[in-house]
Amino acid sequence: MPQLIFITKFGTAIAFLSSYFACFTDERIFPIHRRTTAIGICNFCARGLTGLAPMVNELSEPFPMFLFNVIVVGALINTALLKIDTLPSEIKPNNILK
Question: What mean pLDDT value characterizes the chain?
Fold first, then answer.
């Protein structure tokens, strides 16, 4: 079980860093004019839900794992339905950070 927790924490950290990096470099994921609001909302939700983790851990045995699976499946569905627009012709990938 400790190995599974380590792998889960590692995967969560990598996913967070990848999404954070992508939102600053890829115009298709978060448009520039909405970027700070989207990052702020995501960070607020993530930090708020992190505070609930100890309470969920104290619940009876099958419920925390069931809740974890529901969240993972929900994230998978949301990711699969993510609409990514193509880049406009005047925005080149090398010029996004300039």
Answer: 77
Distance CA 55, CA 43 (A): 20
Q: Which residues contact 87 (CB under 8 A, 6 or more apart)?
A: 27, 28, 93
Hey, where are the domains in the chain? Answer: 1-50, 54-82
For residue 26, pLDDT over 80 is answered with no
Buried b / exposed e across 9-28, counting CB within 10 Å, b at 16+?
eeeeeeeeeeeeeebeeebe
pTM for the model? 0.48
- Residue 87 and residue 28 in contact, taking contact as beta carbons nearer than 8 Å: yes
pLDDT at 93: 58
DSSP annotation of 33: G
* E strands present in the chain: none
Burial of 35 (0-12, 13-18, 19+ CB in 10 A): middle
